[in-house]
């Protein structure tokens, strides 16, 4: 079946690293995605990774993929208050994306 | 380059009514997808349109229907509204880049409340 799971909430101190985790079910997914949603806004693509890669780095963002365990993570280095948002991971399906329920990241001083 | 724009941003309807939501895709994008995001949930795929034809549909009843126009803009229509239809409706456009990545650009959404 199609099911993407994420922990619901993460709280970090400003300046620390944040790690948001996700598990997915479809081993045939070719791409996996991370989106960010701020209050009252749509989803903003942060990054995506091809399934034959283990890691992708883009400035403060690092994506790790463990295809054997179907586990995806997003690390945000030097987390800032502007990073407070809901983060969604998604796997690719036929002509669609399958999203998790989202992880709410709260950044405190 | 304009992004994806949706209208209206907010609306309130009553059970049994019908609603039409509109979406203008990002310039150059030829594919439009619609997603429903209930409160506290991730977006759920409703359907996708490509070249004015439905090109994939999620687990939504037939009272959810759509259109894509020659300029790639799109409409989502929902008939016989139910309370559970209250949600944020997100439109996303995309362009086949040839590498297989389904990179969606989302609009800010239309928030529908059904009373």
Topology overview:
The complex is a heterodimer of chains A (109) and B (115).
Chain A: E1 5-6, E2 9-13, E3 18-23, E4 31-37, E5 43-50, E6 55-58, E7 61-66, E8 71-76, E9 85-93, E10 96-99, E11 103-108
Parallel strand pairs in A: 2-11
Antiparallel strand pairs in A: 1-3, 3-8, 4-5, 4-9, 6-7, 7-8, 9-10, 9-11
Chain B: E1 5-7, E2 10-13, E3 19-24, E4 31-37, E5 44-50, E6 53-57, E7 64-68, E8 74-78, E9 87-94, E10 105-106, E11 110-114
Parallel strand pairs in B: 2-11
Antiparallel strand pairs in B: 1-3, 3-8, 4-5, 4-9, 5-6, 7-8, 9-10, 9-11
Quickly count the helices of chain A. Answer: 0
Main beta-sheet annotation of chain A: 6 strands, mixed
Would you report the number of β strands of chain B?
Answer: 11
How much helix is in the residues of chain B? under 10%
Summarize the amount of helix of chain A as a percent range.
Answer: under 10%
Please count the helical segments of chain B: 0
Mean pLDDT of chain A: 93
Average pLDDT figure of chain B: 93
- How can the largest sheet of chain B be summarized? 7 strands, mixed
The Rg value of chain B, from CA coordinates, equals 14 Å
Distance between the termini of chain B: 37 Å
Shape of chain A: globular
First-to-last CA distance of chain A: 41 Å
Shape call of chain B? globular
How many beta strands in the DSSP annotation of chain A?
11
Order of helical and strand elements of chain B: EEEEEEEEEEE
Note poorly predicted spans of chain A. none
Structural class of the secondary elements of chain B?
mainly beta
Question: Which blocks of ≥5 consecutive residues of chain B have pLDDT under 50?
Answer: none
